[in-house]
Design goal:
Elements: H1 2-32, H2 39-56, H3 65-91, H4 99-121, E1 126-127, E2 136-139, E3 142-145, H5 146-168, H6 170-180, H7 182-187, H8 192-217, E4 220-221, H9 225-240, H10 245-263, H11 271-285
Helix pairs in contact: 1-5, 1-8, 1-9, 1-10, 2-3, 2-4, 2-8, 2-9, 3-8, 5-6, 5-8, 6-8, 9-10, 9-11, 10-11
Length: about 300
């Protein structure tokens, strides 16, 4: 029983990481119907921005909660700026072209960030400063660290915060109008360029939160860290129903639990394959995902 509970806790902690990144995927898709494959690499940039900020503040020798908040906010600001630049110079020029053009552009931006990151940061992994002292708690015989609890708590807070922004604020109303029909939203006087730029900035800021939180729990970062994690987060978004915020959270948690469950068996080497097997199954059985709504395309 203790082993099962331990795996559930580990799965929820891992799933919270996927959920944080999946929230960014789902928000951009919800507004633009664009799969932003560069999102996982923005998550990597968030981790590196946090690394340099934490090093500059010497948090490795003087860990503090306040310092962690400052580093997270700084990484969010950096990635929000990166998101605006990517949207302005990569996605906006092809916005009115076919979806295939946007998809290829997203893959190109992803490769640029990955290999540009290797040029700028170096290919060797770096170890993230321990900004918060690690503590381990025992819950019903299972071990859980304060970093894991923090990741889960942040994922839940971010999900509710995003729900509030989308459904209870003026900019959220503009985002929903833009996602419903971009041209009609323009006729209604909405500055859709500004709304889309805000969407990318917010999604990229969420990726930065994910990068810093992951680096706290798994303190090893490198320029390719966003590749596999980003793909799994995308699967989580599709599983939950891409475009649906609670769906992204549920999808992330399910992928984390499944991956951890497989890791605990003799088939642990197949844990990465599980996520993509789930993607194939969900596309065959329920393409709109668990909480997604089927959309009829007009031809």
């Amino acid at each position: 029983m203790d082993t099962v509970l331990q795996q559930v806790i580990n799965g929820l902690s891992l799933g919270a990481i996927y959920a944080l990144i999946a929230l960014g995927y789902t928000m951009v898709y919800g507004v633009l119907r664009l799969i932003n494959f560069a999102h996982g690499d923005v998550y990597m940039l968030g981790a590196f921005a946090g690394y340099f900020l934490a090093t500059a503040l010497d948090l490795d020798r003087h860990p503090s909660v306040l310092g962690t908040i400052v580093v997270t906010m700084g990484a969010m600001a950096v990635c929000a700026g990166v998101g605006i630049v990517i949207e302005r110079f990569a996605y906006r020029p092809v916005r009115h072209h076919s979806r295939l053009a946007s998809l290829i552009t997203a893959i190109g931006v992803s490769l640029l960030l990955e290999y540009g990151g290797q040029v700028v940061f170096g290919a060797s992994p770096r170890f993230f400063p321990q900004m918060i002292r690690s503590e381990t708690y025992t819950i019903a015989g299972a071990q859980v660290t304060n970093q894991s609890l923090l990741v889960i708590a942040v994922a839940v807070v971010v999900m509710f915060g995003l729900e509030f922004v989308v459904h209870r604020t003026r900019i959220g109303k503009a985002m929903r109008a833009t996602s419903y029909n971009l041209n009609v939203a323009k006729l209604m006087g909405i500055n859709t360029d500004r709304v889309i730029a805000f969407t990318f900035a917010l999604g990229s800021a969420l990726a930065a939160v994910g990068g810093v939180m992951v680096a706290l729990a798994i303190p090893r970062i490198d320029p390719l860290m966003g590749l596999m994690t980003g793909l799994k987060a995308f699967v989580a978004a599709v599983l939950g129903g891409i475009g649906n915020i609670p769906g992204a959270m549920i999808g992330g948690m399910l992928i984390g639990l499944m991956e951890t469950g497989i890791s605990a068996t003799a088939y642990s080497t197949y844990r990465d394959a599980v996520a993509f097997a789930v993607l194939i199954v969900i596309l065959l059985v329920r393409p709109s995902g668990i909480l997604g709504t089927p959309v009829t395309e007009k031809v």
